Amino acid sequence: xxxxxxxxxxxxxxxxxxxxxxxxxxxxxxxxxxxxxxxxxxxxxxxxxxxxxxxxxxxxxxxxxxxxxxxxxxxxxxxxxxxxxxx
Length: 87
Description:
- This protein is mostly helical.
- The chain is built from five helices and two strands, in the order E-H-H-H-E-H-H.
């Protein structure tokens, strides 16, 4: 499964809020979170800001592991955001 984000949103996404909250709670920088992932810190920042990028679900799962959060919760938030954007 791929999570595909294609345009910016003016409102915070569930995924973005979840990612930022977990990262800040862990006391990690954007760079620290992505240091062992095929993801740029700028892309993580875009995700946190509710901007849309194309991202394989395996990367979301790895993000969840790096942040110590439940991968299914992160995937669910991404799917909800996608559904909301489709209208």
